[in-house]
Design a protein that fits this description.
The protein is built from ten helices and ten strands. The chain has helices spanning 13-29, 63-68, 84-87, 93-100, 116-126, 158-168, 197-206, 216-223, 237-240, 285-294, and strands at residues 3-8, 34-39, 53-56, 72-76, 132-136, 173-177, 189-191, 207-213, 229-232, 246-249.
């Protein structure tokens, strides 16, 4: 009888990329079992050699009969965000996730793999006459389900993005990644239309410099071993980030009241009344420029 491990993942695209490390850890701990992944973004897992089958959530025909009923099956479906170690920020997300499943964690880290055709499309779509610099100014889905065009807890302030673009635009072709309602940087190429996720990650294949926030592109850059400058406001690189990057951390003033915060301090959407900053000088533009100059 064949044996299976089922890894079920929910959440955003960046979380899915981080979770490739957890999938690898599951496979390393149970090499005799076929690894079946059920997730929201199956394209992240399709090319990974240690994954045997991938299903999109909600599209799992005959799954119970094929993998669970009278089968030798281990199920990994617990949510790491609601564990003590995550809420009190005691361990990095990946390590905590593996510990939650009683797995022996041996430093497995995220992996993203392009097939030949995806590489061709990436290089073909995004080659420019000058070296490419990527700036991701805000995160989250490209749709209309976020209440504000700017989230102070995760997005890059417009002035910082403008200062960086003005400094580098003569030498680099700058591409801004943002939602359609985000302020566009003048005189740069804007990517705000919906793309397939692998098309979006194809930008990384041609990039020479990268300025990101805590969103999917910083996870993908790590998975491709591409050092980047990453800005952090309401989340922490010790939990969600990687030492490969130059992580620049904002320091909110003390004393802000958090009347609507329950298990976490700041939400991704950034409630306006909980913003502790008085002006937009969350980051020092010169620090960002210096980081990018030496990267």
């Amino acid at each position: 009888m064949e044996k299976y491990s089922l890894f079920h993942i929910e959440g955003g695209l960046g979380k899915h990329i981080g979770a490739t490390a957890v999938a690898k850890c599951i496979k390393n701990n149970h090499p005799d079992r076929k690894l079946i992944v059920v997730c929201a973004y199956p394209e992240v897992y399709l090319n990974l050699k240690f994954v045997d089958r991938v299903y999109r959530i909600g599209n799992t025909p005959y799954f119970y009969d094929d993998y669970i009923k009278d089968k030798d099956m281990l199920i990994f479906k617990h949510e790491p965000y609601f564990t003590t170690d995550h809420i009190v920020k005691r361990k990095p997300l990946i390590q905590n996730w593996c510990n939650l499943y009683d797995l022996e964690y041996n430093g497995e880290m995220p992996e993203l793999l392009f097939n030949m055709r995806q590489k061709q499309i990436g290089f073909g779509n995004w080659q420019r006459q000058k070296p490419v610099m990527l700036i991701q100014t805000n995160g989250g889905p490209l749709g209309d389900d976020q209440p504000f065009p700017y989230s102070w807890t995760r997005d890059l302030p417009y002035q910082n993005a403008l200062d960086v673009a003005n400094h580098f635009k003569e030498k680099y072709h700058i591409i801004q990644i943002c939602r359609k309602d985000q302020n566009a940087i003048p005189d740069v190429e804007i990517v705000k239309q919906p793309l397939s996720n692998m098309e979006l990650f194809g930008l990384l294949l041609v990039s020479q410099k990268r300025l990101f926030i805590d969103s999917c592109m910083q996870h993908a850059a790590y998975a491709l071993n591409l050092p980047s400058t990453v800005c952090w406001v309401g989340t922490a690189p010790s939990i969600f980030g990687y030492d490969l990057h130059d992580n620049i951390i904002a320091t909110p003033p003390e004393g802000v009241k958090l009347p609507d915060s329950y298990l976490f301090d700041f939400g991704f959407h950034g409630a306006a009344h909980e913003c502790p900053f008085i002006d937009e000088e969350i980051f020092d533009s010169n620090q960002l420029i210096n980081s990018l100059e030496i990267s």
